[in-house]
Specification:
By secondary structure, this protein is of the alpha/beta class. The chain has a single domain, classed as 3-Layer(aba) Sandwich (Rossmann fold). 39% of the residues lie in helices and 17% in strands. The chain is built from 11 helices and 8 strands. Strands 3-4-2-5-1-6-7-8 form an 8-stranded mixed β-sheet, with helices on both faces. β6, α7 and β7 form a beta-alpha-beta unit. The longest helix is centred in the C-terminal third of the chain and has 16 residues. The protein is globular. The termini are close together. The protein binds adenosine-5'-diphosphate and magnesium ion. The site of magnesium ion (MG) has 4 residues, from α1.
Length: 264
C-alpha cells in the first residue's frame, strides 16, 4: 500500500498517538483523504476524535447486535474493514480499536500467516485513501508487526529524553526483519523528536545525538512540549481546531508539510 505509515515505538508515552491523530487531521485539512487505523487496545486515537466502540458481550459472538465492531474483528474474524470505518470529518476516517485487541497477541499466536492479516484486509480499500496512518501499541508484538507489514513507511517518534535511543535499535532490527521476510518496500519515513523542551540542555543533547545517529532520517520538524497537545484529546478535536495558535499546531503543521513533501 502506498502512503501507508506505521507510527511505531515499543516505548509508551513517546508521542505516537498524538502524532498519528494530529498528522491525520492535518493531512485531512490539506484535502487529503485519510484513514487512521487504531491498533492500540487503549484506543486513545479513536477516543481523541470521539469515536468509541463499546466493549459489550463476548467478542466471539460477532452477530450480537449490541457489539460494535473494531479492528479486533477485522484481525480476528475477517470482518471487512469497510464495515468498521467511521467518518470523523469530510476527509478523515477512523478504523477504531477496542479493548478486545489486548487479547489479539495471544489469540493470533497459533494462526498461520498472522503477520499478514492487516495487509490482506487493506487490499479491499486499495487506492481509496491518499494516506493511511496506523497508530501502533507500545510493543513489538503481532499488532505492530501487522502494521509494519501493511505499511510503506515507518515513523518512529522518540522522546527527547535520556535513554530515548534505548530500544530504537531493536525497533530498527524488527523493521529490517519485516522488510526481509514480508515487505521489501518498507522504509523508515523518519525519526520524529517529540516532547522536546528546547530550554532543557538534556533535550538539546538528545536531539543532537539522534541527528548524529540517524542523519537524514530525522525529520527537520521537532515537536515541542506543549500543554495544548495534551488537552486537545479531551475536547475531541485535533490541535488545529483546539488551539490553532499553539506551538503544537505550528509544529504538527510543519510535520504535515514535511510528510507531503517527502512523498510516497
Ligand atoms: N508534544 C507534546 N506536548 C505535551 N504533551 C504531549 C506531547 N506529545 C504527547 N503528549 C502527551 O503525552 C502523553 C503520551 O503521549 P502519546 O501520544 O499518548 O504517546 P504514546 O502513544 O507513544 O503512548 C499523552 O498524555 C499526550 O497527551
Ligand atoms: Mg498511544
Amino acid at each position: 500500500m502506498n502512503n501507508a505509515y506505521a507510527i511505531v515505538n515499543q516505548k509508551g508515552g513517546v508521542g505516537k498517538t498524538t502524532t498519528t491523530a494530529n498528522l491525520a487531521a492535518g493531512l485531512a485539512r490539506k484535502d487529503k483523504k485519510v484513514l487512521l487505523i487504531d491498533l492500540d487496545a487503549q484506543a486513545n486515537a479513536s477516543a481523541h476524535f470521539g469515536v468509541s466502540v463499546e466493549d459489550g458481550g463476548d467478542p466471539n459472538v460477532i452477530e450480537a447486535a449490541e457489539l460494535k465492531k473494531s479492528m479486533y474483528h477485522v484481525l480476528r474474524h475477517q470482518t471487512p474493514i469497510q464495515e468498521i470505518i467511521q467518518k470523523v470529518s469530510e476527509n478523515l476516517f477512523i478504523a477504531p480499536a477496542s479493548l478486545f485487541l489486548s487479547a489479539a497477541d495471544l489469540e493470533l499466536s497459533g494462526v498461520i500467516g498472522r503477520e499478514l492479516i492487516l495487509r490482506s484486509a487493506l487490499q479491499s480499500i486499495e487506492g481509496e485513501y491518499d494516506f493511511i496512518l496506523m497508530d501502533c501499541p507500545p510493543s513489538l508484538g503481532v499488532l505492530s508487526v501487522n502494521g509494519l507489514v501493511a505499511a510503506s513507511k515507518v515513523i518512529v517518534p522518540v522522546q527527547s529524553e535520556y535513554l530515548a535511543l534505548h530500544g530504537v535499535r531493536q525497533l530498527l532490527d524488527t523493521v529490517d526483519q519485516v522488510r526481509a521476510a514480508y515487505n521489501p518496500r518498507l522504509s523508515v519515513g523518519g525519526v520524529l523528536l517529540c516532547l522536546h523542551d528546547s530550554r532543557r540542555r538534556l533535550s538539546r543533547s538528545v536531539a543532537d545525538t539522534v541527528k548524529e545517529y540517524f542523519g537524514d532520517l530525522v525529520f527537520d520538524t521537532i515537536i515541542r512540549t506543549n500543554v495544548a497537545l495534551a488537552e486537545a484529546p479531551a475536547s475531541g478535536e485535533s490541535i488545529f481546531d483546539y488551539d490553532p495558535r499553539s506551538s503544537g499546531a505550528e509544529d504538527y503543521g510543519k510535520l504535515v508539510e514535511e510528510v507531503i513533501s517527502r512523498g510516497a
